[in-house]
Amino acid sequence: MLFSSVPFLYYFLPVVIISYFLLSWGVEGLFRLCGKNGEKAGLFTKNVILLAFSLVFYAWGEPRYVFLMIGTIFMFWACGLAIGKAQTKLWKKIWLCVSVITSLALLGLFKYADFFVDNFNALTGLSVPLLRLALPVGISFYTFQAMSYTIDVYRGNAKVQKNPISFGTYVALFPQLIAGPIVRYVDVAREIDKRSHSWDEIALGIRRFVIGLAKKIILADNFALLMRLFRESSEQSVVFYWMYAISIGLNIYFDFSGYSDMAIGLGRVFGFHFIENFNYPYMSKSVAEFWKRWHISLGSWFRDYVYIPLGGNRVSNVRWLVNTFIVWSLTGLWHGAAWNYVLWGLLYAVFLLVEKWVPALKKMPDVLRRVYTLLVVFLGMVIFNAADLSQIGTDLANMFGFGGLPFLSDATLYYLGSFAVLFILGIVGSTCWVKNTVNRLAEGRKTASVMAVLEPILLLILLLVCTGYLVDGAFSPFLYFRF
Amino acid sequence: MSKTIRAVGAVVVVGLWLLIAGFAWFSPDEVYSFTERSYLDQFPELTLENILEKDDSKRGTSSFMTEFNSYTLDQFPLRDTFRGIKAMFHLYALNQSNNNGKYIQDGYIAEMTPLNEEVFQKNLASIQRIYEKYLKDAEGCNVYMSVIPDKNYYLAEPSGHASMSLDYEKLFADVEANAPWATHISLLDVMDVSMFYRTDTHWRQEKIMDVAQKLANAMGKEGPKEEDFTVQKLDDLFYGVYYGQIAVPVAGEDMFLLHSDVLNNCLVSYDGATPVKGVYDWDRSKVELVQNPNGSYTVYGDMYEVFLSKESGKVVIENPNATTDKELVIFRDSNSRALAPLLVQDYAKITMLDTRWLTGGTHMLQNFASFDNRDVLFLYSTSLLNSVELK
Predict the structure, then answer these.
(1) Do B310 and B334 touch, CB atoms closer than 8 A?
(2) Which of B86, B89, B157 to mutate to test the interface with A (most CBs of A within 10 A)?
(3) CB A168 within 8 A of CB A80
(4) Per residue in B344-385, pLDDT tens?
(5) Where are the beta strands (DSSP E) in chain B?
(6) What global pTM score does this model have?
(7) How far is A286 from chain B (nearest CA, A)?
(8) How many CA atoms lie less than 13 Å away from B325 in the CB half-sphere?
(9) ipTM of the assembly?
């Protein structure tokens, strides 16, 4: 089930929210009347409801794989308990390895088996049959999330969660289940066991959710439309190729950050405060800064659980080079089982190294640094979005005028005119200008009350427009849920 | 911002959202959408098998879930209103040049028509096949051809869509070059965009007298006289096929029919059925959904079907008051339904063949008509030639 769908928005979510608040308050009230710990009972009810509906949410997209999800929850919960109870470091390590190896094995089987078989066949000339297993939705997210738990328990950074319902709620929590952010257990441990609600928090959550929905439906999906029109056009040009590259970048950004906004917003409604996943990455002045602003939860996961354990940058230059390439190859591979994703990851590895070894880059004027960063990022997006390796070569050649295409075409001008407003909204929306302006107006003495009235009106308008797009359109899946 | 005001705002947003959700849950299901001219999905079968069965077209999602998704979209409350909200936002806030491939220019809704070379060439080949197999050796057969420009021909340039449209002049030239055996009749000098319905693909019957006149004259006939006809306005407003597709709120249009003594006495038969008197199908002059005794539904969803109905491969109009025994065969699309009544005064019989609905298409025409001593007119619109295979 996707957030940007009518079944979710108008069927599933109302039932969840009504059940979550009414049932939990009812149970809490009942227990208090009986002189028992109402708060604990209420929280337990909330977690049961969230877990149950999260499993329904997951089963909606993958009925058979919900058992895989339940098995994963149980396995990590049990390993966490075992690590906590183990008397020696050796046994702690063994149970950690069991959890990590099992989850990586599952990820490898469902996501990468056919990739490896394909390449094996290509190298050897054999014809080993492919498994053709359907990819469980969100497996890359929830396995990484669950691994962070056992690793942090092993490291002593997190307490063991003995309650399987509470743990299951953390792993399966539907707001961030299928497309992140990758929430670490330590970040929500306190709120799993104790959380409060207020209308103000719910309002902030709703605001975040609706803005995320609008980013996805109004911006991301319309950029996706332009991408499709480009591929179908028989009148491509160099300028059209650049429009396409920018569309990919804006489509992926608004799709993914929109989803993260919705996840964070929903989390807030239910009393959770997830970490931010995007921080206006297109305002970065270097590739290094870009990766501190883009998909923050993934970058920090690889940093804390792969890069630093490998030694990080506190090793010899050669070893650091190797570490960097390993981490970025894995980052690319995490996004998809195809060589273009690996190439995309390695592109960043190269530029991170360049930035490290060419300090003169930092001395460039800010505007040039931003242009350089955007150039690397958008070229990377073209690689990321390519259907295969040969398309990368064709696309890049055409972008720089080596593909025999004209500089401009009638179709290019047509689409430039048609999508001009969207580009402006996308470019402005990808900066912090809108947020800063709104915040300034909300805090201004003369404008605060106007903004207070305008905000719910604007959110309602966005909700109605998004609903209109959903009703008029067809299936529009998030990009990242296939990971 | 004060927390209280923010909280009140949240209550308002949640309240409206739950209200819409409530209607989504509890509104009775609709059967048919007149704006979209299609049946609406009903609640899918809820069985374990349907839940576990995969829909391979949707990435392994279960059939029930896929069908439920379609059901919720089709049955969404105030569906047309929400589609209108999206259309208005898309066209005017985002300044997009079209919505679902349709655009508005000078009050007319038209469709972008990029060239579909494959379909166009297949249609030229089908026309050639008809000539080679049935007309070339037919005795006394006069063959004519005319192409009706669609609205986009007139509106593409002023609306800025010319670069996204097919090259009409080339299309007209290709049709003519492909059929040197026919007498070509250009309609460009007797047509303009005002002849079309604003919300539909079709032309207005009351405005195509000049077209009928030109075709008749080219075929050596007198043609219709305006004074012989009276005009009747239908009660209901007409909302054409583009109205539902573009989803922008536009006004309905008056629909007019032409009557004459000749037409009132004509007999019409569809696909060989018993002829009925009169050239208009009055059952279809209204928009309504009729439930049959067996529980199924009959839809009268398109008022333009009053003109000699829709899905018939062979329609025959007999003129018992004809002063000639000459017959006309029209290879046609739906535009001929309004035009043929304006040609019938010069013929004893008009046979209209739509090969899309004939068994065997263009390969088995001997089962439906003979062509000796007949005028044969190929009358197709540019939109059909470019997008629909003739079979």
Answers:
(1) yes
(2) B86
(3) no
(4) 999 999 999 998 888 887 788 887 888 999 999 999 999 999
(5) 32-33, 38-39, 54-55, 61-62, 102-105, 108-111, 142-148, 183-184, 230-233, 256-259, 267-270, 276-277, 288-291, 297-300, 314-318, 327-332, 349-353, 374-381
(6) 0.91
(7) 32
(8) 2
(9) 0.90
